[in-house]
Design a protein that fits this description.
Elements lengths: L22 E3 L4 H4 L1 E6 L3 E5 L9 E7 L4 E11 L1 H4 L4 E8 L69 E8 L4 E7 L11 E6 L12 E9 L2 E13 L5 E7 L5 E3 L5 E4 L4 E9 L6 E5 L9 E2 L2 E5 L4 E10 L8 E9 L1
């Protein structure tokens, strides 16, 4: 996001503008939203009533690669100038991917959501089931064995894991300039309805600063063949520190977290699956793991890692959650593993 919307060094008085939120799409029929939808290449984009996030519509996009998808054409340019100069501003896409039966790798039955959670989690072979102190909001993601399930209806290992790993976004402004960036889709969080929000800091697109900030067209293209729905597109302020914790699943499917306990005892030779959970943020974050005394030493990356402990002893597992755009300091969590 950061490269995306820092537009405006050439605009007069840009810094004095108030950074108001801008709604680009809010679930209304295209004609009522002041937009025109135009399919591109072998892809397509159209109004849909199959699923909605807000309003009565969503946009259904079929993409077959980086050059196939669709354009959202705004009848009246959307003014992003103020947002482009606010370091806390992000552009947020609320997306939904079609649910398919049978998670990759054979995810287990969905577990009930724990208090404060966002839906049951797949059992052994997928993401962990809801357990003591575990909010039920963690998806296994593309790196997890078996992917993830979302919501009460996710029993039987259903998954909403995107077939796409990133979207190509193309911004065209009224001065005829085009800017593009890639939006990562890894590690998305799913609510109970199956919608997922992913954001980019507008400051992450410095090329936009050489435009007039008046958005006339937005192109959406995937990196592979796939279908997705768009429920909402808007800019907003995303502030506050990164937060997160570690969830641990043992070989029997039981789940423990660093929020509820500081130490876990296991037998020698046991393998554990560790899940990193970021909270209060919709930007894609990086997960870095250390299994030694030095938390700065990176022994694994990704929101899901596995580790076998063959020797007796006490091991401290450190997780560092990093904002790849550098706007917020990292969040850390740790849990002690006692091997008997």
């Amino acid at each position: 996001m950061k490269h995306l919307l820092w537009v405006g060094t050439c605009a007069v008085g840009l810094m004095s503008l108030a950074a108001a939120d801008v709604t680009l799409y809010a679930g209304q029929p295209a004609e009522q939203s002041g937009i025109t939808l135009r399919s591109w290449g072998s892809g397509s984009i159209e109004d849909s009533t199959e699923t909605t996030f807000v309003g009565s519509r969503s946009m259904k996009v079929l993409t077959r690669g980086m050059l196939s998808g669709g354009w959202i054409i705004f009848d009246t340019p959307r003014d992003l100038r103020a947002d482009l100069n606010a370091p806390d501003k992000v552009i947020r896409f609320t997306l939904r991917f079609p649910t398919t039966s049978g998670a990759v790798g054979g995810g287990g039955a969905g577990g009930p959501a724990a208090p404060g959670g966002q839906g049951g989690l797949a059992g052994p072979g997928g993401a962990p089931r809801g357990g003591p102190g575990f909010g039920g909001d963690l998806g296994g993601g593309p790196q997890a064995p078996g992917g993830f399930s979302g919501g009460p209806a996710a029993g039987g290992g259903q998954t909403t894991t995107p077939t796409l790993r990133q979207l190509r976004l193309v911004f065209e402004t009224s001065d005829g300039k085009r800017t593009e960036t890639l939006l990562p889709l890894q590690n998305l969080r799913t609510d109970e309805s199956g919608w997922q929000s992913v954001s980019l800091p507008l400051s992450a697109i410095p090329e936009l600063r050489s435009t007039n900030g008046q958005l006339t067209k937005l192109g959406l293209f995937g990196d592979a063949a796939g279908v997705f729905y768009i429920g909402e597109i808007r800019t907003l302020s995303e502030t506050g520190p990164l937060q997160g914790y570690i969830a641990v699943q043992n070989a029997f499917g039981s789940v423990f977290t660093s929020r509820s306990q500081s130490q876990l005892s296991i037998a020698s030779g046991d393998e554990l699956t560790f899940f990193g959970v970021a909270e209060g943020v919709s930007i894609p974050v990086e997960y870095r793991w250390s299994f030694g005394d030095d938390p700065s030493q990176v022994d694994g990356v990704g929101n899901v890692v596995r580790r076998r402990f063959p020797k007796r002893g006490v091991y401290t597992v450190h997780l560092t959650i990093v904002d790849p755009y550098g706007h917020r300091p990292p969040a850390t969590a740790k849990i002690e593993i006692r091997v008997n």
